[in-house]
Amino acid sequence: MIRTTRLLLETIAELFPQLHRRGCLLDIGSAEGRVARFWTEQGGYAAYCYYELDVCRRVAALCDISLEQCSPEKTAGEGVWLSGHSGRMSIAFTDLVPNGPYGFAVLDTHSYPREYAFEMVGHIASQLDRNGWLLSVIDQGISSTAWVNELSQWFEEVQILQPAAAKAQDIQVFLSHCPRPDLSPRIGYYSWQVPIGGEACHFKGAPGVFSPRGLDAGTAFMLEIMDISSDDLCLDLGCGTGAVAVVAGKKSRQMVMAVDTNARALRLTQLNCEHNLAREVQVQPSDGLMDIDPDIQFDVIASNPPYHTDFAVARRFIDGSFSRLRQGGRLYLVVKRSVWYEQKLRSVFGGCRKFINESGYTVFVAERRRMQKPSQACKGTTRKHLKRIEASQQRKRRRLR
Q1: DSSP strand E in 32-171: where?
Q2: What are the φ and ψ backbone dihedral angles of 105, each rounded to 5 degrees?
Q3: Residues 50, 330: Cα–Cα separation, whole Å
Q4: Residue 54 belongs to some domain of the structure
Q5: 100 and 64, same structural domain?
Q6: DSSP-assigned letters across all residues of 299-333
Q7: Distance, C-alpha 111 to centroid of its chain
Q8: Distance in angstroms (rounded) separating the CA atoms of residues 348 and 318
Q9: Residue 114, strand partner residues
Q10: Residues 291 and 197 in one domain
Q11: Is 358 found in the same domain as 316?
Q12: In terms of domains, do 229 and 365 share one?
């Protein structure tokens, strides 16, 4: 168990006798929703929320809860994209917090970027009842003084708790009481401009997404290479702040889809598409291509995949994209380490083009050819695979002698 969550649980257990009548508990980001699950096991009601889709789904599976897509009104009003409940427990996939009021809240900051963690304090305080409590935990990534100052802006009482285990692990626990009235939380937006097709497009970013303060160099290079016609049905796979979706929405008359596993990225993409008058952009949560209507086939799929060393996400993106492209459809990928991607794309698509800039970014363009079959294209063509085939053939020949 993550140490910050363990400390929250230990502190909750000590405080439980005085807090168990405080109404519904709001759990923001504890590992596997352990605090919310503990609260319900003690007979209370709890709501869990987080901004990463895979985490919410993991907690939902542990609680036997099915997450369903929310209405556009709920998404627009509360920022909740998926939600579900069963018995005493509810779960929300959101970059903020679901509407309260709550009597008690816990905030585990371990996986929130620093600026995002500070912002969340205001969102939580706004959904607590007037006599509500917030139990929060920070590690050495956040200054204790800065955290106390932030809490004091939103709560009338702030207490630093001193569990022995916390001192030993450079972790600090805080208990805040009575949110200040008449304060409204805000998202910490950053603004910038990007010239697209001779037009200055205005974008907003925010803490919690990749490159929140401006368009990253990789995506900018990919946009230079991309060729989108007015009849192309496009997918922005891992949309981030939505730059690809905005460009596609301005160039194509067809539907554009933008997906991500990050609720804040979905918020920003929707905001930026609306602000820049990009037509027909459908924004929705999806783990890669898994949650997209299987009947939809695309002409263009574009992605700046995460730079993980195990390539698991990139592998799913490439394999999934091949099956979801129409004949003649194109996959655009921008990467830093190109060797693995080139081998994988040639294995799946049978070939690709590549463009390299001075900053070290590579854009690959792979086309689903008209005579290509998925089963053939996805078959490995590495040296290892060829050696295995040759060895198998040799064994068969020996048996026939």
Answers
A1: 46-50, 68-69, 80-86, 89-94, 102-108, 128-138, 155-161
A2: -140, 150
A3: 34
A4: yes
A5: yes
A6: EEEEE-----TT-HHHHHHHHHHHHHEEEEEEEEE
A7: 12
A8: 8
A9: none
A10: yes
A11: yes
A12: yes
The amino acid present at 270, given as its one-letter code, is Q
Domain range for 216:
190-384
Tokens representing residue 213 in the block? 């303060």
> Is 363 among the domain residues?
yes
- Domain CATH for 110: 3.40.50.150
In angstroms, the CA 367 to CA 133 distance is: 55
Based on the domain organization, do 131 and 206 belong to the same domain? no
> Domain count of the chain?
2
**Domain-located, residue 393:** no
Helix (H, G, I), strand (E, B) or coil at 145: helix
Angstrom CA distances, 176 to 72, 179, 323, 334, 359, stand at: 34, 8, 51, 45, 47
Local confidence pLDDT in tens for the 401 residues of the chain: 688 999 899 888 887 776 666 689 999 999 999 999 999 998 899 999 999 999 999 999 999 999 999 999 999 999 999 999 999 999 999 999 999 999 999 999 998 999 999 999 999 999 999 999 999 999 989 999 999 999 999 999 999 997 665 665 789 999 999 999 989 999 999 999 999 878 899 999 999 999 999 999 999 999 999 999 999 999 999 999 999 999 999 999 999 999 999 999 999 999 999 999 887 899 999 999 999 999 999 999 999 998 766 789 999 999 999 999 999 999 999 999 899 999 999 999 999 999 999 999 999 999 998 655 544 443 433 444 444 445 544 543 444 33
Q: Which of 138, 157, 179 is the last residue of a domain?
A: 179
Of 144, 179, 214, which residue constitutes the final position of a domain? Answer: 179
Residue from 199, 203, 201 nearest 271 by CA: 203
Counts of helices then strands in the chain (DSSP H, E): 14, 18
Q: How far is the C-alpha of 82 from the C-alpha of 284, rounded, in Å?
A: 10
- 276, 161: one domain: no
Residue 60 CA to residue 48 CA, distance in Å, equals 9
Task: Provide the pairing of β-strand 155-161 with 128-138.
Answer: unpaired
